[in-house]
Amino acid sequence: MSTMIADPISPTRVEARQPRLPRSVRQFGLMLQWQLRRSGQYLPLLIVVQTMLAVATVIGYGLLAGEVSESIGLYLATGAPTITLITVGLVMTPQSTVQARTEGSLDWLRTLPLPREIFLLADLAMWTLIALPGTVIGVIAGAVAFHVSLTVTWWLVPAALLISLTSASLGYAIGTLLQPMLAHLISQVLIFTVMLFTPISYPAERLPEWAQTVHQWLPLEPMAQVMRAALAPQAFQTDARAWLVLTGWCVLAVLGAGVALRRRS
């Protein structure tokens, strides 16, 4: 007499039967939670460092500018949060990705039965959360230091998210595709370029004409434009072109980061 043994249903098979959207949301939440716990030892330090960077940018640029007029003060106050978001994306993200490659945790993540897009979105969300405290404190420090009035518009959040997502995606692609030493060097060169040779904290007219033309098609100046218009709409305006260029770069950066993640799998 044979004995019927019921097939065990593994949690993975049960989860696979769920609708795709709730399953993806749950996977994203779990992966974000795992990433935050994995980086928990360093999260406070990362937040402190990027907050200090935001405040130092405000104070340092103020010392370089000397006597700051209201117009220059608005440039400096609105440039600090932009530089903070870009720095987290283009410097901290590739360095963390390189570390994950070196220690093998990135390869281990690829063995999990999860879509690569979930990995990417969870990573990008974590870096966006890390950038938020310094961004807010940078705005407050700029308003206090230069005695300027800033306004919180409704498009400040989408502007900040677009800047953060674009920067983090570019940094993720750099950290995934390039050799570790080269990725470190590229990130250092990029932040040097962002802080000194990009019209974020000063008007674009101060650059040579050829540099102005180049920056019109790169994502950095549109990032500064949308942030200025979001924080000081009474003094700065932006047009649809800046949003379109930045959105185009964001789409390309996210797709590029996804391709880079799949390429090594």
Please tell me about this protein's structure.
The chain has 265 residues and is mainly alpha-helical. The chain has one domain (41-264). Helix content is 77%, strand content 0%. It has eleven helices and no strands. It has helices spanning 11-16, 20-38, 43-65, 70-103, 105-110, 116-146, 156-177, 180-197, 209-217, 220-231, 240-263. Helix 2 (20-38) crosses helix 6, helix 4 runs antiparallel to helix 8 (180-197) and helix 6 crosses helix 7. The radius of gyration is 21 Å and the shape is globular. The chain starts with 10 loop residues before the first helix and ends with a helix. The model is unreliable at 1-9 (pLDDT under 50). Keywords: Membrane, Transmembrane, Transmembrane helix. It comes from Propionicimonas paludicola. Residues 31-230 form the ABC-2 type transporter transmembrane domain. It is a multi-pass membrane protein. Its main location: membrane.
Q: Please indicate the percent range of residues in DSSP E strands (runs of 2 or more).
A: under 5%
- Given helix and strand content, the structural type is mainly alpha
Distance between the termini: 48 Å
Rg calculated over all Cα atoms:
21 Å
Query: How would the global form be characterised?
Result: globular
- Percent helix: over 70%
How many structural domains in the coordinates?
1
The arrangement of helices and strands along the chain is HHHHHHHHHHH
The overall strand count is 0
The stretches of 5 or more residues where confidence is low (pLDDT under 50) are: 1-9
Task: Give a quick account of the main beta sheet: strands, pairing sense, barrel closure.
Answer: none
